[in-house]
Amino acid sequence: MNQEIELKLELPREAVEAFEQSSLIPDPGERAELSAIYFDTPDRLLRRQGYSLRIRRSGAKRVQTVKADSAEGGGGLFARGEWEMPVADDRPVIDTRTPLAAALGDAAESIEPIFHVDVERRTWILEEQSGRAEMVLDKGFIRAGEREAPICEIELELKAGDPSALFALARRIEGVAPIRLGVAAKAERGYRLLDAAPVSFKAEPVDLKPGSDPRQAFRTIVRACVRHYRLNEALLIDHYDPQALHQARVAIRRLRSALTLFKPMLEAQQVVRFQDELRWLAQLMGEARDLDVLVEGVGQGDLHEQIEAVRDRVHADVLEALGSRRVRGLMIDVAEWLTLDAARESDSGSADAFAADRLQHVYQWVVKHGRHMTKLDDEHRHAVRKKAKKLRYASEFFAGLFSETKKGRKRHAHFIDALEALQDKLGALNDRVSRPELLKRHGFDMSKQPDAFGGKGRKKLIAGAAKAHADLADVATFWR
């Protein structure tokens, strides 16, 4: 088995010519027409087990490749197990030279083609001070039945030296073309064509194992957040959808929460740097999200049209920001930071011990500061709401460390249920406070606005929040 270390970058098709004519390209390089067939069982068993299987043809040569998913992948830098062998035709060879025989068992007989990838590939070998990398430009299409998706991406694969060489090269590319961090392999994009087109992507479970190192846990969590954001950002750039914006904003908030949770083992200067940038992006998306929700709650009429006009302007601001170098480079910066050892040595022992300590700290804050819910003012209830949200994200991040037993999974589920109930009540209260301010901020005359944005039902919501908080304080924690 070989270990493939690869940085994937997405390139707009309209920028290909500028890239190819830049000084980055030392020579014509190699050109090839590649055609690949991807295989799986009808019930997608290989996909569920974390493998992809393809046979790629270039001229008369055919090579079978098996790749294994890794917790290191998905956040831009892919580090995956890879098994290659020449084959005589387009029929997969399933034997003990790869993990396929064990993964498929008797289902190996039902392997079938599921989608095709056809690309024009250009390849160069480039030298950087810290290493040597292969740079590949792929242009083409993925096809599954009658559906297809375009491919235009740059792959940087480390051939010798340090992974920093990949990011040094990425910076040079960024100077001539508007690249973005790639988080989805061709196989994943092909599988996506087999299902209905997604409107948005929710956060995926974070794969943490008990006894793992806290630094590795941090990298895994942040890479999951980066992937969550980039998948939804790509949808937004293609076509604005309120759900994609909501999930992109959630991803940014989760990433900010991860930086706060792991702050004790991070360089303070880097945390401040990324928090400032992420806060700016979250606020911009938050304004758009608030207007998306607001306009849905207003009946047809003059107010609805006025809010829609404001929302359209804010949407345009969001899309303009997403197209900026500031945003495009942000996730590449995060990926580089993670790869080049963002976290310091920790004296917290295992990730389990670190997670339990951080969860307990945030949980105690929420219990203490929300205890007199009915007497708190709006500002303090909002602070409890924000901290409860961070507790929710932390509980999701660290779930795998405490859910190996049935009892652990049950306690985790009960805790999340109690936390969700509190978030729902506090969120509804926050909407009642923030909506009038939102309207006023955009120049609406609040004296003429309907009472729907006022305080009707406020006491009932506060009482509900108080009960939900008491339930959370009484529920068994899942980490101790």
UniProtKB/TrEMBL annotation:
Coiled coil: none annotated. Residues 211-480 form the CHAD domain. This is Inorganic triphosphatase YgiF. Residues 2-197 form the CYTH domain. Gene3D superfamilies: CHAD domain, Hypothetical Protein Pfu-838710-001. It comes from Sphingobium vermicomposti. It comes from the Bacteria. One of its GO terms (molecular function) is inorganic triphosphate phosphatase activity.
